[in-house]
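Researcher: Please translate sequence to structure tokens.
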Amino acid sequence: MESHQILTPFQHKHLTKSLETEHRPQYRRRIEIMLLADAGYSQTRICETLGCSHETARYWITMAQNGQASAWGDRPMGRPRIVNESYRQRLRILIHTDPRDLGYGFRRWTARWLMIHLEKEFGFKISSRYINYLLKDMGLSTRSPEFARDPKRAIAPPGPKASIAQPLLRETG
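Model: Translation complete:
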């Protein structure tokens, strides 16, 4: 049975499992620092092994010692992730999906709701403004197709009242 210096067996297992998924190198380093400290490595040896600063090693060793090993992903660093093709493809699929099919109580997506939903799926957030930019770039919109073709219909949708409001044509003779 493994002997853990500072992590609980659950924390150790969780961190080890997190290494199996694809993360930015900085996040992987945080996890590796805590796992090496748990294995009994000194701060100096961790820094030599991973090529990190003593400040970084000290911080994440302290986080592990304080029972906050799961916080390795809480402090974002650097620029946000770049939206890749799988993100764009999922956005394309969502815009053609009825939100009610995914448990939402509305009929049409807004950029804000797309942002919230995609953040849950991908684990990072981009602004609703950038969602609109991506949609426009892909030739898509959150507006329904009939409104996109005829903007007047967005103001006065067709229906029984629309025919009453139409002006009467006078015959000139």
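Researcher: Any highlights?
Model: The first helix runs from residue 9 to 20.
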